[in-house]
Amino acid sequence: MEIVDKVAIVTGAGAGIGAALARRLVAGGARVVLADLDAEGVGRVAESLGAGAVAVGGDVSDELVIRGLIERAEAEFGPVDLYFANAGIGGGAGLDSTDQQWAAALEVNVMAHVRAARLLVPGWRERGGGYFVATASAAGLLTQLGSAPYAVSKHAAVGFAEWLSVTYGDHGIRVSCVCPMGVDTRLLHTGLVPPEHAAEAELAVKAVTTAGAVLSPDEVAEVVLAGVSDEHFLILPHPEVLKMYRHKGSDYDRWLDGMRRFQAALQG
What we know:
Elements: E1 7-11, H1 16-27, E2 31-36, H2 39-49, E3 53-57, H3 63-76, E4 82-85, H4 99-127, E5 130-135, H5 148-168, E6 173-178, H6 186-191, H7 198-209, H8 217-229, E7 234-235, H9 240-250, H10 252-267
Parallel strand pairs: 1-2, 1-4, 2-3, 4-5, 5-6, 6-7
């Protein structure tokens, strides 16, 4: 997959990984629609990128908003070639997470992907190709200490990306699933767990920042676009996640014991 002259949509593009992806896409010759709930923020990012980028504010878990993104891309640039389902949120803490917190995490981290694919895949099948890039998390392969909704919704995001690849890969549709650990974004520092759950919020951040390097959004975007160019399904900005994932699969009970010890050490 080459990005020159391609049309892309990037959600969660007002800051962080999404903004970095948009910058690299435009620099590589793509034309991009940037979307974010923060309309002012995403507008500033798009303005900085020139004529190859436009911004749309809105909730990208809303099917009407997603439909509007696709229509805007087609009107400005042409049919959508790549969709980066990058927007994501944290969630509640543990069993005391509210139904609203669970619903919000599932809506943004999972159903936003489902709804976008529902709108894009039929047209991609007719055209013979398209590319769906889902930003999940290492938490979707491993887990997230301190936040049940985040851990569960990111597992679901990985599962949906797998299903999409298996089901439509023979129809020219490519899928990648991005699973980073620590990235220097607002989500890591203030958004994984609500601040009123101070102990769980501290645990969640420590679990990420002590497990490996905290990368910049630009470093992650570079790895993501390299993975897309090579059409890799699993894109791991932190390569050590693969070793962790293999350990988990080879001896699940031992991995669970190790995670409990890791949690106890962080809380001690």
